[in-house]
Amino acid sequence: MKKSLRESLLKKRDSIEPKRKNEKEALIIKRLLNIQEFKKAKSILFYASFRSEVDTMGCLNSAIKLGKKIGLPKVDKEQGCLNLYEIKDTSELQPNYMGILELSILKGRKMNLKDIDVVVVPGAGFDTKGNRLGYGAGYYDKLLSGSRKHITTIALAFEEQIVPGVPREGHDVRVDKIITERRVIDCRNHR
Questions:
Q1: From the CA atom positions of the chain, what is the Rg in Å?
Q2: Listed residue (176, 185, 140, 135) closest to 158, CA to CA
Q3: How many Cα neighbours within 13 Å face the side chain of 86?
Q4: CB of 132 closer than 8 Å to CB of 173
Q5: Where are the domains of the chain?
Q6: What are phi and psi of 50, to 5 degrees?
Q7: CA distance 1 to 101
Q8: What integer pLDDT is reported at residue 5 of this predicted model?
Q9: Which one of 38, 73, 135, 179 is least enclosed by Cβ atoms within 10 Å?
Q10: Could you give the CA distance from residue 186 to residue 129 in angstroms, rounded to a whole number?
Q11: What is the pLDDT of residue 98?
Q12: What is the CATH number of domain 2-190?
């Protein structure tokens, strides 16, 4: 069920026309920069967008200019986990695992999840309860379930990615908020 839903949602997301996608992304980024969780956060873990995901490069640059400490994950395929590293400029990124941009400078840049205030997560699809359909590897579920403190999780998505229900398994971690071009969904109010 998850696989076919994922394929359907990715097809929808991939089919958004480039001009329309840019317009939607501008609205999503504006909403993200204006929510309280983002404004208050001192450190934020982003993802480096790839393929047809909501483009995060503008968010990364804006957050860095605002003086926030910004982290990006780097996939450790052998351990099946994400390692977190601080970036200081988007020019430090280069394509790595599956072509996803990752930090090229690792020495002295390691971050710990306990020091992160907000995590911006990617996904193929979401429902208003915060259930997230990832890409199948479970990297973010593993990362977030290992945290001892609650860290606010925010998903950036197009309205095309919001569905009535996402199948949920015991290990799946829900997001707190979803930001689309039309609205900010506080998923905690829908549970």
A1: 16
A2: 185
A3: 15
A4: yes
A5: 2-190
A6: -150, 160
A7: 29
A8: 96
A9: 135
A10: 8
A11: 82
A12: 3.40.50.10420
